[in-house]
Amino acid sequence: MEDDHGMRRSVEELRQTFKSGKTRGVDWRKSQLRAILRLIEENKDNLYQLLQSELGKHPVESYRDEIGIVKKSVDLALSCIDQWMSPKKGWLPLLFLPASRKLLSEPLGVVLIIGSWNFPISLILDPLIGAISAGNTVVLKPSELAPNCSSFLAKLLRVYLDSKAIKVIEGGREVSNQLLQYKWDKIFFTGSVKVGKLVMAAAANHLTPVTLELGGKCPAIFDSLPNADIKVATKRVASGKWGACCGQACIGVDYMLVEQKFATTLIEELKKTIKTFYGDDVRNLKNMSKIINKFHFDRLRNLLEDPAVANCIVYGGSFDEKNLIIEPTILLDPPLDAEIMNEEIFGPLLPIITLDNIKESIEFINSKSKPLALYAFTKNENFKKQILTETSSGSVTFNDTMIQFACDDLPFGGVGQSGFGRYHGKYSFDAFSHEKAVLERSFYFELDPRHPPWNNYKLEFLRLAYNYDYVGLVLLLLGLKKPLSS
Ligand code: NAD
């Protein structure tokens, strides 16, 4: 961990590097992107091992959510960066011609990226790809809760990437807090709502723009049986609940909503799916990640300790404290005022809430903060339309879970309490760029009506020009149209 003095020196060095203009060139950007690919490729065995030991991630999960995601993002950035950087030309009103205009993407400067622990590699490297593509210098602060992944990044980024432009500063909340005191040109934060508020307050001191990638409770609606294929749906829900870091995912399914009459069938099908995916014995959950640490293990156990909640367990509920494993657990209708229904669960506990009519799910969702992701399993087009128009969320996915994260053409980000700003693909480039409006006029054709002294002719000229009434303008100029009085 660096002391405060080292931090200041690091930030100053990054500012000097940015000022030198080195990071603006496309060659530098591409060389750094290629270096990330090399880093991943040459150290992937080490990475698989780290993710397995730190989070219990199976290599398939590690490839899908971390290594593969990062490689895919670099490949896309390398193939699109020239186009992303190219100025975007456009039209101007006739009134200002002859002139040209363009939108020029410029880097923001020195940026800070703070990550969380659940996807400790991709949630740091994915935003970094955006920051480099856009030509910034960067400080990365990985989460202290995945310390081995954090030190992997600190050691290797220094070796593979330009250390005068990209630095990793390790540490926990104190270091994070110290970093937040500096003036940044952008802060990109992934983490909880609580810390997101602190980040935004610190950023306000310097009027620094922020992207907040936060969390919350993501619901999954299961429509009536004829309207949803239950076998496919339960597999996809199970994947979105237990299949990504054991439910410790910001866009994992937090709870389900279903009509009362279909609840038993849904639960039975979920149980079958869990057994197919993971077998019977909680200690043999080789295909599921573990809980990150004892604190979060106890937090999840406490959620179930409330007797009113414990009574609602219909499947699972066992804990292996030594290995920090919690069995996939299903609860039916826990009290709505219980903590489990009011905090983000971030673990393998799945409450199922029953409703008389599935349309009530909309009111239920709207009674809570706007979620990062909303899932609905339905073939009913009217219901889909109603969900889209009557609810608000970072994203909506019909008939699947989580896969929106891997689609580069879809922006990833929240709304309301689930955060703001977005990234992935071109959106990552935009998140770290300022699109500068550039207008260039020629010295020819100086238009008198723009300048005082004012009269009715000039007013009429401007009225016609602002209404794009070019026929009227020509008539006015030829003296065939009289100006109206003001
Ligand atoms: P967290 O907010 O506790 O920590 C995130 C980062 O902030 C860490 O690097 C940590 O060191 C730092 N931090 C912690 N306390 C701080 C403080 N007081 N001041 C300054 N910095 C501080 O979150 P977490 O436990 O790492 O992650 C879980 C949360 O993140 C969940 O709410 C989850 O939904 C959310 N999340 C969101 C996304 C997304 O893309 N939207 C992705 C992953 C996780």
UniProtKB/TrEMBL annotation:
List the catalysed reactions: an aldehyde + NAD(+) + H2O = a carboxylate + NADH + 2 H(+)
Q: Which biological process annotations from GO are given for this protein?
A: aldehyde metabolic process; response to abscisic acid
Under the cellular component aspect of Gene Ontology, which terms does the record hold? cytoplasm
**Keywords, sorted A to Z:** NAD, Oxidoreductase
List residues of the Aldehyde dehydrogenase domain.
Answer: 10-438
Task: Name a Pfam family for this protein.
Answer: Aldedh
Active-site residues are 213, 250
Quote the Gene3D superfamilies the UniProt record gives: Aldehyde Dehydrogenase, Chain A, domain 1 (3.40.605.10), Aldehyde Dehydrogenase, Chain A, domain 2 (3.40.309.10)
GO: which molecular function terms? aldehyde dehydrogenase (NAD+) activity
**What protein family is recorded?**
Belongs to the aldehyde dehydrogenase family.
What name is this protein filed under? Aldehyde dehydrogenase
